[in-house]
Amino acid sequence: MVSHDERSHATRAALIDAGRELFAERGYATVSVGEITRRAGVTTGALYHQFAGKRELFEQIYSELVGRVWAHVLDARERGGAPSLLGDCEAYLDACADPAFDRITIDGPGVIGWDQILDEAQAMIAVSLASAYERGELAAAPGASLARMLAAALKEAAVMIARADDPLDARASARASAAQLIGGLAPAAHRR
Question: Which of 128, 114, 123 has the alpha carbon at shortest distance from 158?
Fold first, then answer.
């Protein structure tokens, strides 16, 4: 027999999956609660039992997306052999450039708010900056303002890639710009 907790977990997962698919296909503004619940195969009441509403569901989906991006960065760092701040930034941009999440990336600032999005990204970037400093890649110890500014630059690059007519070209441009930004943070002996 399936427990109440198992049913609740399954309902929540179905809503998250349905919301992610619909938000990625058409964007937050054009998706209704009714469409989400129909695709999830649950009632509207079930959505409101799990989430305060469509916005909270979107926030959960966005938060999971951020978690996947960070997992991608860490995985790329492990597979890459020689971790670097630029490598972390490139892995971040690669993960954000997933076409399935383009629309969610674009809608995030408008739905969740730029500050909240930057708070989450800043936490990830701060870890990368601290690691880079320990490896000798940075001329000075990074502060919170550097993490915030780099997070803003990378989030904007992700949105730029998502909106581009040619995402591959936009991704290449973002990579070159990230290299320039990061190159300016390196000790003089490491600059090219």
Answer: 114
Cβ pair 146, 122 in contact under 8 A: no
How confident is the model over 126-185, as pLDDT tens digits? Answer: 999 999 999 999 888 889 999 999 999 998 898 888 888 998 899 899 999 999 988 888
Assess whether 47 and 64 both reside in one domain.
no
Q: What gap in Å lies between CA 103 and CA 157, rounded to an integer?
A: 14
The CATH number of whichever domain residue 35 belongs to comes to 1.10.10.60
Reported pTM? 0.85
CATH number of the domain encompassing residue 112: 1.10.357.10
